[in-house]
Design brief:
Helix content of chain B: over 70%
Number of strands of chain B: 5
Largest sheet of chain B: 3 strands, antiparallel
Structural class of chain B: mainly alpha
Number of strands of chain A: 4
Oligomer: heterodimer
Order of helices and strands of chain B: HHHEEHHHHHHHHHHHHHEEHHHHHEHHH
Order of helices and strands of chain A: HHHEEHHHHHHHHHHHHHHHEEHHHHHHH
Number of helices of chain B: 24
Largest interface: A-B, 54 and 61 residues
Shape of chain B: globular
Chain lengths: 605, 566
C-alpha cells in the first residue's frame, strides 16, 4: 500500500502525463504554449528585485517566445480535418486525456479547434505588445507586475485549450488572481473597490457554474457508471428539459458576467478605468472573450434545448447592451470610460451573433471577438500613451493633439476607424456578418413564452416547480420555408443603430482630442511616439488592416468548426429540428470559398 | 510490508502474540508524542536562562514528524480492530487523524520561536503544552469507548486552555484563557452528563455496544418501553453532540471563538483551530457513526434525528461565520469567524455523507477538507506570527498595510493561504470545498432530496462572502500604503521558514495533486471500524473499487513505461 501512495503516485502521474504525449509522436504544442509563460514566471522569481529593466526584458522574451510557438499551432492546425459526427466540436493536436485526479475522474486534456485557435493567437499576439507598453507606464514593483501578466497569460491560454471542464474551471478562476492584483496594486484612485468588485462579481457567477458542473458530472456518473469531467462525456449526457433550464441559467450567468451582458456589466467600466493600461488591454482584449467563448463552448452545446428557449432573451439583452453601452459612452467626459462602454456595446454584437445560430452570424460573432481584441486593445494603448504624457484621461484636457503628435494621430485614427467599423478594417467584417446573419435567424422569436408553474410530479406525487411552454412549436416542416422572423429583423435593426452610435461617440471623442484649437500650453509640448511606442502600435494597426482586407484568412479556418457546431445544435435541439439547416444553406445561400466576398461587393456597388 | 515485519519482530522480542503486539502498535504515535512532551519538560528545566529555546521547537517538530511517520508506517497494518478490550481502535481512520494532528502541531511549534521573539516570552512550556494536546487529539481520534474519548478530550483541551493564556502580561490573553476554560469545562460537563444518560439507558460506555443496545431499545415492540427511554436518548445524544460542536466552534456553540482567538498567541491559534477541530470531528464521527448510527436516531429521511441538527448547524455556521467575519477589523478575529464558517463546511460534509449508509464513504470529504484546512490555516496564522509592528505582533488590517510588498516572502505566502482558504483554484482549499460540495450535490442528485443541493448553494454563496474578507487581507498587504512612521519588522527564524514553506507546499500539493490525500482519506473510511452490517457492505464495495482503481493505475503505468522514448 505504501508504494501506491504519496510521492510514488505523484511520480507516476508525471510519468503517465508524459506517455500519451510521446505516444502520439507529435510535439505537445498546446502544453508548451500554455506553460511557456509559467517558465517566465519562474525565471522572474529567481531574479534580483531591483533590476526592473531585466525583468521587463525577460517577460518580453518569454511572451515573444510564446507567440512564436503559438505560430506553430497555427501552422500545424489543419482546417480540412475530418469532422466528428455527432459531436459539437472536433479538436486537433489533442493531448491526453491523462488521469490527473483519478478518484474524481479529472483529466489533463488539451485540444484546439477553429473556435479557440484564433483566441489563442490573439492572446499570444497581444501579450508582447502589452509588455512593451508597460515599460514606461509601470515604475514600481516591475518584477511583480511582469509575474502577474505572465501568470495571466498561462491562465487564459489554459482556459482556451482545456478539454476537461474541471481543468477549464481551474484556469478560469486562476485568471482572477493576477488580474485582481494588477488592478488593485497598479491601478488608479479607486483601484481597491474596482479590484474587489471585479473579483467578487466574477466569483459569484463561477461558483454557481461550479455547482452546475458538478450536477452534470454526477449525471455522467449515473448514466455511464464512470465519473468524468471530460467535456466530451459531459456533452453526451442526457438531461431533462427542466434540468437544462436551471443548468443553462447557472452557466450563462457565469459567462454573462464575464462578457459582460447588459445587466451584469457594472463591474466593467470601473475595472477598466481603474486598471493600468496593460490590465485594460488584456481585460478587453482577451478576458472578456472568455465569456463569449464559454457561452459558445459550454453553455450552448451542453444545454441545447434550454438555449433555444433563452436565445431570444439573451439577444434582447445583447441589443439593449449595444444601445445602452453606446449611449452611455457618448456622454462620458473620460476617454477611457468611452472605450470601456464601447466594449459593452461591441460585446453585445458578439453575443447577438452567437445566439443567432446562423453560419454568418456565428462567424461574425467569432470575428468580432478577434476584431474587438485588436481594436479596443489598440484604443486602450492609445489612451495609455496620452495618459503617460498628460496624466489625465479627461477629454476636456486635450484638443489639437494632432498638431503636436501627427504620427500618433494617424495610428490612433486607424484604430478608431477599426472600432467604428469602417469597411476595409477589421471591425466592419464582424459587425456586417453578424447583422446579416442575425436578420436571417430563426432563433430570435418569442412565440414560446415560458412561465414557471407549480406542477405535481407524475411519479412521486410531489409538488414542484417546472418551466412550461404555453404554446406549441410550429412543426419543423413549416419552419423550413418561412422567411426570417420579424423579431430577428427588429432586433437586428435596433442593433444596427449601435453601429451608427459607435461612429458618433468614437469620432466625436477623436475630434475633441485630436483636432480643435491647440489652446493648452501642455499639449503644445507633447512628444510624438518614440520607437518603442511605434513598435507596439504599428503591429496593432497592421493587424487591424490585415484582418479587414483578408478576413478570409481567419474565417476559412473557423468555417468547419462553425458548421459542425451548427449541425450539432440543429440535431440536438429537440424542438427545432431543421431550423439551422447548415448543409442546405451551404449550397443555396453561402457561396463556397470566401464567405463574405460576394456580400462585400454588393455593399460596394 | 514494513509494518507487518515490525509487528512480527516486535512480538518475538516482547514474547507476545501478533494481536497483542497490535495493541501496542496502536499506541505508538500517541506514545511517541507523550514521551516527547515529558522529555521536553525535563530538558527545559535544565535550560540555561537567557539563551534561546529554538532547539526545543526543532526537537518537538522532529518528534512530531517521527510520530506522524510512525502512523504512516502503521498504515499498512492488517490488524485493524478494537484493542485494549475495546478501549481504542487501531484503524486507518485514527492514523489519518494522528498524521493530521502531528502535522498541525509540528507546523505550529515551528512557528513559535519567531512569535516568542516578537512578544518576548521565550518559555519552554509552550512546546510541552502543544505536545500534550497533540497526544490527546491522537487518542481522541482512536477512542472506541466513551471513557477514553472523554479523557482524551480533556487531555487535548486543558493544554489548549493554558496556551490561550500564555501571554500572561496581556489582559486579553488572560481573558481568552478564562473564557475558554469556563465555557470549555461547562461544555465538557454537559457532554459528560450526556454520556451518563446514554450509559443509564444502555448500560455500557463502549461505542459499539451502545450502538447495538440503542437499536434494540428503539425497535422495542413495546411502545411504552421505547418511549420512556426515547427522551433520555434524545437528550443524551444532543448533549454529547453539543460538546463536540463546542470544540469545533459550530453555531450555536461558537460564542467563545472570537475572543479566544484574538487573545491567544497566533501560532497557538493556528494549532487550536486545526488540530482541536480535527480531533473533535474524528471523535464526533466515531460517536455518530458507531454509537448513534441507527436510522431512527440518524433522522433525516426518517424523521427528526441528529442529521437534522448537523444540517442546521452546518447552514447556520456557514452563514453566520462568513457574514460576521466581513465586519471584523482584527485579522485574528476575522480568522476566528472564518473558522466558524469552515466548521460549517465540515458539517456539510458530515450531513451529506450521513444521509444514508450508501454514502458512508463520502465522509472522506471531511477528512480531506480537514487536511487542506490545516495547511491553509496554520500557514495563515504562521504569517501573522512572524510579522510585527511597533514591537508587537500584527493584528489588525491596518497593521498589515503595505507589508506584502515590503516583505515579499510573507506577502506571497499570505496570498497563497488566503486564496486557498477562500477556495480559489489551484490551491488545496478549492479542491477541499469542491469535494465537500460535490458530495452534497451528489446526495441531492441521487436521493432527490434537494435540500442538500440547497445546502451546497448556501455554502457556495456564503463562501463568496468568505472570498471578500480573505481578499481584504491582501488588499491591506498589497494595495494600502504602508504607514511610514510605524516600525514594522519580520522575524523570520529558520524554523518559521520551514513551517511556512511546508504549509505552502502542502497547500499547493493538495490543490494540484490531491489524488494521494483523497485516496488516503477514502481508505480511512473504508477501514473505519465498528459500523453496522449495512455500512460494512458499503465499505467492502469501496475496498473493491479502490482495488480496481489501483489495478487500472498499475496497468496504465506499465503501458506508460513500455512506450519507447522519442
Amino acid at each position: 500500500m505504501l508504494e501506491a501512495m504519496g510521492l510514488t503516485t505523484l511520480f507516476s502521474s508525471f510519468l503517465a502525463l508524459g506517455a500519451p504525449l510521446t505516444e502520439a509522436g507529435t510535439f505537445p504544442w498546446l502544453s508548451v504554449v500554455t506553460f511557456a509563460p509559467l517558465l517566465g514566471v519562474i525565471a522572474l522569481m529567481l531574479m534580483p528585485k531591483e533590476q526592473d529593466q531585466a525583468a521587463r526584458t525577460t517577460a518580453l522574451i518569454f511572451t515573444i517566445g510564446t507567440f512564436i510557438i503559438s505560430l506553430g499551432v497555427m501552422v500545424f492546425f489543419d482546417p480540412q480535418m475530418t469532422l466528428l459526427r455527432g459531436a459539437p466540436f472536433t479538436f486537433q493536436m489533442v493531448e491526453g486525456p491523462v488521469n490527473w485526479i483519478p478518484m474524481l475522474g479529472i483529466h489533463y486534456a488539451l485540444g484546439v479547434d477553429g473556435i479557440s485557435l484564433w483566441l489563442i493567437m490573439l492572446t499570444t499576439f497581444l501579450m508582447p505588445i502589452v509588455i512593451l507598453s508597460t515599460y514606461s507606464a509601470v515604475g514600481k514593483h516591475v518584477k511583480e507586475y511582469m509575474i502577474c501578466l505572465l501568470l495571466l497569460e498561462t491562465a487564459m491560454l489554459g482556459a482556451l485549450v482545456s478539454l476537461d471542464v474541471f481543468l477549464f474551471y481551474i484556469f478560469w478562476e486562476m485568471m482572477l488572481i493576477p488580474m485582481y492584483f494588477i488592478i488593485g496594486i497598479w491601478g488608479g484612485e479607486d483601484r481597491i473597490q474596482a479590484a474587489v468588485k471585479f473579483f467578487i462579481y466574477t466569483l459569484v457567477g463561477s461558483l454557481l457554474m461550479l455547482i452546475a458542473i458538478l450536477y452534470v458530472y454526477f449525471k455522467v456518473g449515473a448514466q455511464t457508471g464512470e465519473y468524468s469531467f471530460l467535456f466530451a462525456d459531459l456533452a453526451a449526457v442526457q438531461l431533462s428539459y427542466n434540468e437544462q433550464i436551471w443548468l443553462f441559467l447557472a452557466f450563462a450567468l457565469a459567462f454573462a458576467i464575464k462578457v459582460p451582458l447588459f445587466p451584469f456589466h457594472t463591474w466593467l467600466p470601473l475595472a477598466h478605468v481603474q486598471a493600468p493600461t496593460a490590465g485594460s488591454v488584456v481585460l478587453a482584449g482577451v478576458m472578456l472573450k472568455m465569456g463569449t467563448y464559454g457561452l459558445l463552448r459550454y453553455a450552448f452545446p451542453l444545454f441545447p434545448d434550454a438555449f433555444k428557449v433563452f436565445a431570444p432573451y439573451i439577444a434582447v439583452l445583447a441589443v439593449v447592451g449595444i444601445i445602452y453601452g453606446a449611449i452611455v459612452a457618448m456622454v462620458q467626459p473620460d476617454v477611457k470610460k468611452i472605450v470601456a462602454y464601447s466594449s459593452v456595446s461591441h460585446l453585445g454584437f458578439c453575443v447577438l451573433g452567437l445566439v443567432a445560430m446562423t453560419p454568418q452570424a456565428l462567424q461574425g460573432g467569432l470575428f468580432i471577438m478577434l476584431a474587438h481584441g485588436i481594436a479596443t486593445g489598440g484604443l486602450f494603448l492609445a489612451v495609455g500613451i496620452l495618459y503617460e504624457r498628460r496624466h489625465t484621461k479627461k477629454i476636456a484636457a486635450f484638443g489639437g493633439v494632432a498638431k503636436s503628435m501627427p504620427v500618433f494621430s494617424a495610428l490612433f485614427m486607424v484604430i478608431v476607424m477599426a472600432s467604428v467599423g469602417l469597411p476595409g478594417l477589421n471591425g466592419f467584417v464582424g459587425e456586417f456578418l453578424t447583422l446579416i446573419g442575425s436578420s436571417r435567424s430563426h432563433f430570435l422569436y418569442f412565440n414560446k413564452p415560458i412561465t414557471a408553474q407549480s406542477v405535481r410530479n407524475a411519479e412521486t406525487g410531489e409538488l414542484g416547480w417546472a418551466w412550461l411552454e404555453n404554446t406549441t412549436m410550429p412543426s419543423p416542416d413549416s419552419l423550413q420555408h418561412v422567411g426570417p422572423e420579424i423579431t430577428a429583423i427588429i432586433l437586428t435593426a435596433v442593433a444596427t443603430l449601435g453601429v451608427i452610435f459607435a461612429a458618433a461617440y468614437l469620432l466625436w471623442m477623436w475630434r475633441r482630442v485630436m483636432f480643435g484649437p491647440l489652446d493648452k500650453e501642455e499639449n503644445k509640448q507633447l512628444k510624438d511616439l518614440n520607437a518603442r511606442e511605434l513598435t507596439y502600435m504599428i503591429p496593432m494597426v497592421l493587424m487591424a488592416v490585415f484582418m479587414g482586407v483578408f478576413p478570409n484568412f481567419f474565417l476559412s479556418r473557423m468555417e468547419p468548426a462553425v458548421h459542425q457546431f451548427l449541425t450539432y445544435m440543429d440535431q440536438n435541439i429537440t424542438t427545432a429540428k431543421g431550423v439551422v439547416r447548415v448543409e442546405g444553406m451551404d449550397a443555396q445561400v453561402l457561396p463556397k470559398g470566401p464567405m463574405i466576398s460576394s456580400d462585400k461587393e454588393e455593399e460596394a456597388h | 510490508m514494513l509494518s507487518n515485519l515490525l509487528i512480527t519482530q516486535f512480538s518475538t522480542l516482547a514474547l507476545l502474540t501478533p494481536p497483542v503486539a497490535a495493541e501496542y502498535m496502536a499506541l505508538v504515535p500517541g506514545a511517541i508524542v507523550s514521551v516527547l512532551a515529558l522529555i521536553i519538560i525535563l530538558v527545559d528545566s535544565f535550560h540555561r536562562p537567557g539563551t534561546r529555546r529554538d532547539y526545543l521547537a526543532y526537537f518537538s517538530a522532529i518528534g512530531l514528524a517521527l510520530a506522524g511517520f510512525s502512523a504512516y508506517v502503521l498504515w499498512d497494518n492488517t490488524l485493524a480492530g478494537p484493542v485494549f478490550n475495546g478501549m481504542l481502535y487501531l484503524d486507518k481512520f485514527g492514523l489519518f487523524f494522528a498524521i493530521l494532528a502531528c502535522l498541525a502541531g509540528g507546523l505550529a511549534v515551528l512557528q513559535a520561536p519567531s512569535y516568542m521573539r516578537l512578544v518576548r516570552m521565550d518559555r519552554g512550556e509552550y512546546y510541552m503544552l502543544v505536545l500534550f494536546s497533540v497526544a490527546g487529539a491522537i487518542f481522541m481520534a482512536n477512542a472506541a469507548d466513551m471513557l477514553t474519548l472523554f479523557i482524551a478530550l480533556e487531555v487535548m483541551s486543558i493544554p489548549v486552555y493554558c496556551l490561550a493564556g500564555y501571554l500572561r502580561r496581556d489582559g486579553r490573553s488572560a481573558e481568552a484563557a478564562l473564557k475558554y476554560f469556563i465555557l470549555g469545562a461547562f461544555s465538557a460537563g454537559l457532554m459528560l452528563y450526556g454520556i451518563s444518560l446514554i450509559y443509564g439507558v444502555t448500560g455500557t460506555t463502549s461505542l459499539e455496544f451502545i450502538g447495538r443496545n440503542l437499536s434494540i431499545i428503539i425497535h422495542d415492540p413495546d411502545p411504552a418501553g421505547a418511549l420512556a427511554s426515547g427522551n433520555l436518548i434524545t437528550v443524551g445524544m444532543l448533549l454529547i453532540f453539543s460538546g463536540f460542536a463546542f470544540k469545533i466552534a459550530a453555531v450555536p456553540f461558537h460564542i467563545w471563538t472570537p475572543d479566544v482567538y484574538t487573545g491567544s498567541p497566533a501560532p497557538a491559534v493556528g494549532y487550536m483551530s486545526t488540530a482541536v477541530k480535527a480531533g473533535a470531528i474524528a471523535a464526533m464521527l466515531r460517536v455518530l457513526l458507531i454509537a448513534f448510527e441507527d436510522p431512527v436516531l440518524r433522522g433525516g429521511f426518517n424523521g427528526f434525528g441528529w442529521l437534522d441538527v448537523v444540517f442546521f448547524c452546518a447552514a447556520a455556521s456557514m452563514v453566520l461565520g462568513n457574514v460576521v467575519a466581513i465586519m471584523q477589523k482584527n485579522v485574528k478575529r476575522m480568522l476566528a469567524y472564518s473558522s466558524i464558517a469552515h466548521a460549517g463546511y465540515l458539517l456539510v460534509g458530515v450531513a451529506a455523507s450521513s444521509a444514508s449508509p450508501e454514502f458512508f464513504l463520502h465522509h472522506d470529504t471531511v477528512l480531506f477538507y480537514l487536511a487542506t484546512y490545516t495547511a491553509g490555516t496554520v500557514g495563515a496564522f504562521g504569517v501573522l506570527s512572524i510579522l510585527g509592528k511597533n514591537g508587537r505582533p500584527v493584528e489588525t488590517y491596518d497593521d498589515l498595510a503595505g507589508l506584502g510588498l515590503k516583505y515579499p516572502v510573507a506577502g506571497v505566502l499570505m496570498g497563497l493561504f488566503m486564496f486557498s482558504s477562500a477556495g480559489v483554484p489551484p490551491f488545496g482549499g478549492f479542491v477541499g470545498k469542491l469535494y465537500i460540495f460535490s458530495s452534497a450535490v451528489q446526495v441531492g442528485n441521487t436521493t432527490g432530496e434537494f435540500s442538500f443541493i440547497g445546502l451546497a448553494l448556501v455554502g457556495v454563496l456564503s463562501s463568496v462572502a468568505g472570498a471578500y474578507y480573505y481578499l481584504k487581507v491582501l488588499v491591506s498587504m498589497y494595495m494600502k500604503k504602508a504607514d511610514e512612521k510605524a516600525d514594522t519588522e519580520m522575524v523570520m527564524t529558520s524554523s518559521a521558514k520551514v513551517s511556512l514553506f511546508a504549509s505552502a507546499l502542502l497547500t499547493l500539493a493538495l490543490g494540484i495533486f490531491p489524488g494521494f490525500a483523497i485516496e488516503m482519506a477514502r481508505e480511512s473510511m473504508v477501514d473505519f471500524q465498528g459500523p453496522s452490517a449495512t455500512t460494512q457492505k458499503v465499505q467492502e464495495q469501496g475496498r473493491q473499487q479502490l482495488e480496481e482503481m489501483r489495478q487500472k493505475e498499475a496497468s496504465s503505468r506499465v503501458v506508460a513505461d513500455g512506450v519507447p522514448q522519442g
